[in-house]
Amino acid sequence: MNVFGIGLPEMAVILVVALLVFGPKKLPEVGRSLGKAIRSFQEASNEFQGEFKREAEQIEQAVKTTAELEPKQIEPAQSSHDTAGSSQTS
């Protein structure tokens, strides 16, 4: 068993130390609070990942749309650039 890089013997030592520090009556409350904190952290992390993925998909869609429109916009710009270039050399 390996949780957060901590093996079973290390977890047993941590549990004994927590039992000595908080006492048997307070330990379940501390465990419950820790569990709620970890759960809320996981929910916030999942929400952040979801937002990040949605934004990445929107950017990807915008890039695809721009790539579709770009060839149409480049052609007139190149022809005006060629005209300007030839007038400068004259």
Description of the structure:
The chain crosses the membrane at residues 6-23. It is found in: Cell membrane; Membrane. Forms a complex with TatC. The protein is mainly alpha-helical and 90 residues long. It is built from two helices and two strands; from the N terminus they run ββαα. It has one domain (2-85). β1 (2-3) and β2 (6-7) form a beta hairpin. The mean pLDDT is 78.
Task: Give the tags.
90 residues; single chain; 87% helix; mainly alpha; TatA/B/E
Number of helices: 2
Provide the spatial order of strands within the biggest beta sheet. Answer: 1-2
End-to-end Cα distance: 81 Å
Estimate nothing, just give the exact number of structural domains: 1
Subunit structure: Forms a complex with TatC.
Transmembrane segments: 6-23
GO molecular function: protein transmembrane transporter activity
GO cellular component, one term: TAT protein transport complex
Reconstruct the topology from this structure:
Blueprint: E1 2-3, E2 6-7, H1 8-22, H2 27-89
Antiparallel strand pairs: 1-2
Short description:
Keywords: Cell membrane, Membrane, Protein transport, Translocation, Transmembrane, Transmembrane helix, Transport. GO terms for molecular function: protein transmembrane transporter activity. By secondary structure, the chain is mainly alpha-helical.
